[in-house]
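Below is one protein, fold included:
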Amino acid sequence: MNHSIQLHRGDDVAQQNLVLAGRQEGGGGEDRVDLNALIGTLRRRRTLFLCVALGIFALGMLLTLRATPLFSATATVVMDTRRPQVVRASDQVVTGSDLGTAAIDTEAQVLTSNEMADRVAKALKLDDDPMFAPRREVEQPNWLQRLLGREADPIPRRAYDAQAQRDFVNARLQRGLKVERSGSTYVLEITYTSPDPEFSARVANAYATEYAQSALLRKRAETEKAVAFLSQRISQLRAQANADTQAVQRYRIANNLLSTSASQLTEQEVSTYNQQVAGASASAAQDRARLATARQQLRNGSKGDDVGEALNSGVVSSLKTQRASLAAELANLTTRYGDRHPDVVRTRQQLADLDSSIQTEINRVISNLAAKQNVSDAQLASVRSSLGGARGTLQASNKALVGFQDLERKAAASQQQYEAYLARYSQVTAQEGTEAPDARVITRADPPSGASSPNIPLSFFLSLVLGLGAGLGAAFIAELSYRGLTTGEDVESRLGVPYLGSMPLLKSVMKWKGDPLDVLIKRPHSVFAESFRNLQTSVNYSTDAVVQVLVVTSALPREGKSTIAAGLARTAAMDGQRVVLVDCDLRRRSVNRLVPQPPKAGLIDVVRGDAKIEDALVQDEASGAWLLPLNSQRVPPGDYFAGEPFKNLLDELRGQFTLIVLDTAPVLPIADTRVLATMGDAVIFVARWRKTADDAIRSALKLLPRGRVNLAGVALSQVDVRRQTRFGYGDPTYYYSQYKEYYS
C-alpha cells in the first residue's frame, strides 16, 4: 500500500503541516475501465510487449517447424451389448447385462494394456523392427526434445533379456496409442500416431483385429470356465441333494414319523378321548350323586323303600305289592280271630319275612349303586389315562415334525438347485463352440494422407495468442511494479501533493547543442522556456502569501533541480524581476557553471563573515539575474544554515531582491536541506520523469519538518515530450502535438 503526503493549510500559509495519509495508488474514485489508460500502458511498455510477444511467437513457430511430422490412423470397433449368462438370475448367481459406461471405459483400458500391446507386437513382429531395436548407449533427449514432449527410453539401453525387450517394445508401442469412446455409443476409436503413415495404419488395424480376436478367445475361455464351474458345482449339488434326502429318511425313522398325516390321526384320537372323558365324567358324577342320595336317606331314618333306585326296582315293587295284600289279610284276620289266632300268627310271620326280603332287596340296590359308582370311576380313570398318552404322543410328533419339515425343505431346495444347474449345464455345453465375439471391427484404418501433427495453422494461432498474452502480461506486470512518476495524476494520486508542472527534455522538443539554459535566452518563446514560466506561475498561485524565497530541492541527486532553479532565476530576471540564485549545495556547486570565472568569494565566506555580500554576488550577463555561488575551495564540515549569520544574510537578500531562489542539496542524503526548507516561502520538489521512485519522494517528504514547510508541490523534470504524447494520458503534455504551433 502506498502512503501519500497530504498538504494541510491553516490561516497562516507559512505554517503548514505535512500529514501522512493512507491512500490507494491511483485512487481516482472511478470504477470504470479507462481504455485510454490501458492503451497508454501498452504504449509505454510497447518495447517489452513486442519483445516478449515476438519471442514467444518465434519460439512456438520454431518448435512447430522443428517438430517431427506425425501421422494418425484410426480404426473403430463396436462392442456387443449382449452379454452371456452362465446362470439365470432366479438361480441366485450373478448374471450378465447390457454394457454400461464403466464397462466401456474398462474395455478402453484393456486396449491400452500391456497384454494387448504384447499381442500386437507379436502380430506385427516388432521385435525384428529396427525402430524398436534397443541401442547400447543411453540417449537422453535435449531440452528442445523434452519441450516437444519426447521422453527418455522407458528402460536403460543396454543388452536386454527377453522380458526387458518385451517391456521396451510395449512401452514404445503404447506411446502413440489413443483409445476414445465415440460419444455415448458402444464404438471405440483406436488411433495410432507415428512418423510413418503406413506403420500407423498397420498398428491401428492390428489393435482392432487383436482386440476382436481376444474378445472371442476371452468369451470361449469364459464358456470353458463356466462349463468347468458348472460341472464341479453339479457334482457338489448332487452329493448335497442325496445327503439331504437321506437325512430326511433317517429322521423319519428315528422319530417314528411313518407319514405326514400321523399327527392328524393323533389329533383325532385326542379329540375322541376328550369326548369319552367328558361322558365318563358325567356318568361317574351321576352315579356318585345317586349313591350319596340313597345313603343320605338311610341316615335320615328311611328304610330304603323311598330310595329312587328302589322305587324303580321291579322286585321291590312286587314285594311291596305282596306286603300290601298280606297286610290287608292280616288286618282282616286280626279283626276276625284276634292276635293269637294261628292264622294271624302265621300271616304276621309271613309279613315279617316279606319285610325282610324287601329290605334285603333295597340293600342290594344300594350295593349296586356303589358298584356302579366304582365302575364309572374306573372307566373315567382309564379314559383319562388314554387321553394323557395320546397327548404325549401328539407333543412328541409335533416336535419331531418341526425338524422333519426343515430337513424336508432343505432337501427340496438342494434338489431344485441341482436341477437348475443341471439344466444350465446342458444349455452351456450345447452353446460351446458357437460363441460370437464381443467386439467386431467396423472400420479399418487407411494410411493418412497428411500429417496430424504439427498443425501449423493451429500452432501459428496458438503461438500468436500465447505471444500476445505473454506480452500483455509482461507489460502489465512491469507497469504494476513500476514506481516512477509519469503524469501529474501520478503525482497527486500517489503522493497526495499538488502537481506544479513538467520540464521537458530539451532534445525531445527541439534540436539544440550546448547548455540547455541558453535556450531561455536565445529561444524565449520555445516550449522549454514556457515550461519555466508555467512552473513559476504554479508556484505563485500555490499559496496566498507572496513567494520571495523559493527553495528548490529533490529526493536524490541528478534529478535536474539545479537546472530548474537556474532556469527559474533566469526566467524571472528576463521578466524584469530582481532575482538572486543562491547555491546552497555545498558538494555539487552547480551554480558555478553560470559564472564565467571562478569566484574568489562565495556564500560560505559571507556567512562566516570573511567577505561582504557585494564581493560574492555575480551577475548573469545573459539574463540579468544575480548569482551567489560557492567558491572553489573545499568547505569544511559545519552547520552553516541553521545559525543566525545565514538568517541575517537571507534577511539582507530579502531587502535587495524580489525573488530569492535557493538551489539546495537532495533531501535524503543531506540534512541541510531540511533546515533551508523551513526558511522558504515555498518549496519546489523536483522528481525526474519516470526515473525517481515515488517511495523515494515519499521518504524525503517525511523527513521535512512537519508544520514548518510550505510545500508548493512537485515538478517533473526531463520529460520526454515525444514519449509523453504517446502514453502520458491525463497529463497536459499528452496534448502537446495539438498546441505545439504556439511555440517558436
